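**User:** Everyone, produce a chain:

**Assistant:**
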Amino acid sequence: MSKNNQSRSGLGTVQRDFGPSSSLPPPKSSQEIPWPPTPPAAPAQPTRVLSASEKRLKQIQDALAGYSKPEPSLAPVTAAAPLRNSTTTNKRPSPTGESSADVPLPKRTKRILPPDWHHNDALSRSSGFTTSSKSSSSIGQTSSTTSTVSTAPASKGKLPTIFLSQEQTQILRLVQEGDSVFYTGSAGTGKSVLLREIIKTLRKKFVKTPDAIAITASTGIAACNIGGVTIHSFAGIGLGIESPKDLATKIRKNKKAATRWCRTKVLIIDEVSMVDGDLFDKLAAIACDIRKNPAPFGGIQLIVTGDFFQLPPVTKGSAQVKFAFEAEQWRTCVKHTFNLTKVFRQSDQTFVDMLNEMRFGNLSQKSISAFRSLSRNVEYDDGIGPTELFPRREDVERSNSTRMSRLTTEQLIYMSIDAGSIQDPIQKEKMLANFMAPQRLVLRVDAQVMLIKNMDEMLVNGSMGRVMRFVDPSVYGTELDRDGAGDVSVVGASKQIANVGSGAKKASASVAKPKLYPVVEFILPHGGKRRALIMPDIWKVELPSGEIQVSRTQLPLILSWAMSIHKSQGQTLDRVKVDLGKVFEKGQAYVALSRATSLEGLQVLHFDPSKVQAHPKVIAWSKTLSTIADNS
């Protein structure tokens, strides 16, 4: 942050919605001039005029007065002091940012703020930052040919403008024209960014009939990442082991499922690599049967995406894997197939080439030597270590617990508020487990955490940081906040937290809402630091009809010393550590290593070329793919 910046309160950036019960005073239509007129008027009783920052502060304090929360469970734990590795390491310099003070965060969309808070000074001052951060918008900015698909002004506090490459723009155009499309690409080619833009475009197209769009994915985690449901849940087929005819009969008995099939005009399937080929054929047959339409997939437009070189479908026993592209109805139902080639996640062409060799399971001796050289330790002067990726969840929990136990700082426990229409406790628990946000989040000062939601152009899903302190949000950034730096930056506060739905009120009665929330100092990708007060946010699984099957309200943070390879799929991580001696599935090594943005931020232990495998069927099929250039 520039040293010449004047001190400021930043209260105009607080992202809180207090609801109708906490009305704020209306703005004054005029303001007294804070200096005497010329010529001087008759002496009058001097009055002190509040500055704009002071008025905002008063408004926040008045509103927060009605936002009471019980005290959290405080359970300081005594443990041994943190251990430090004394072995020889490669040290990387700490980021060059001058200040780690609490920097104002642009307010997010759909917030109800006092009417005189029109000017968002946080973004107008953002030019004072000496560093930039990587976000989903930066993907297209490196492309030689880009297309602006969202022009919402940043001053409104929205996420940054997204730029699509020429490849992505062509696919979006086909989707807008109503064609069925499958697109793939290696890790980091912008598949997820494009899918979000496709969903946004389709929602505008079907704004009057939102249930015409069915957003699904092969797994619960992938579905949650795009705000959808699993393909099994949408289809109403349970495990889907019966014949297409029996499944169609089953669906007709489920009025909600049958209605979904009949009203759907566009079906999105993400992470199709984990969809079994037989299941794809069953879905195609069911669509024709239920909709009484012999057209491919019952006349539904398909938007399918995923990378078959990543995690494959789950099979039982020794059964042979059958990919979706092997389905009999694949070519009939998917009109266009494209392969994205522009890589955005990694800018180092050497690293890109190494990952491409790994993707095809055909490593050169040069790449093998390069990967083996990454076994060195990498430490960072800012105290934030790499995220270690494990294939099994038990290893993740063990690693995070071990690191947490080394801290002797105060501990706070945050329990989520879960709600939704699903009544079956087993099904509900299974669906909630797909959220990145945990049910029970234990935090301590100095705990290493990761942000799991995009907040603005600097703080994005995957941003790494460290808990600095815990604070009452009603005094954060005020003169009462003795440990604060004065500026206010709030992440996650939302009106939805107060009322998540009918089930939330029951849950909130038994779950204590902590009064203290964490202030996290985040490390920006290209240097510099940024602090923010983290408030709860909401995750939900919503059907096309608008029914919320499950929802979870929790802080948008997870411990980031360790993470599962499965949950890391789709993530971009600047600091990664992987032990390849523990991987056991085809595609796991590629998924894990391709999360890294650079060789400098990647540590690889026990590199074994035999662990790098690609399925022969996928390799053969990939040779049939076309690119946008091939079709232009």
Summary: The mean pLDDT is 75. The CA atoms of residues 359 and 590 lie 6 Å apart.
